C-alpha cells in the first residue's frame, strides 16, 4: 500500500502534484473561466510505478475538483481509465462528455 501523500495544487505550473522523495508525480490541467477543468496529462516517474501512486493522485485530484465544484473534462487516458474503473466519479464529469476506455 502506498503512503498517503499530500496533494499540492501548483497553480504556477498548472498541475496537481505529490512530492515523493526527489520525484514529482503530477497531473497537468487547464482551467477554463467558466468552471471546467481539463486534465490533460498524468506523469508518474518510472521509479515510482506500480506503487498505486498514480491512482492515489487521481483520487485526490477528483476529490479536489469536486470540492471546488468544477466540471471535469478527462483528456488524459490514465484519468479516463480510472473513471472507467470507478464509475461513481462520473458525477463530476461535464455533461455530454463520453468516457472511452
From TrEMBL:
PROSITE patterns: GNAT_YJDJ (PS51729). Residues 8-94 form the N-acetyltransferase domain. InterPro entries: Acyl_CoA_acyltransferase, Gcn5-rel_NAT, GNAT_YJDJ. SUPFAM superfamilies: Acyl-CoA N-acyltransferases (Nat). It holds the Pfam family Acetyltransf_CG. It comes from the Bacteria. Signal peptide: none annotated. PANTHER family: BSR4717 PROTEIN (PTHR31435:SF10), PROTEIN NATD1 (PTHR31435). This is N-acetyltransferase domain-containing protein.
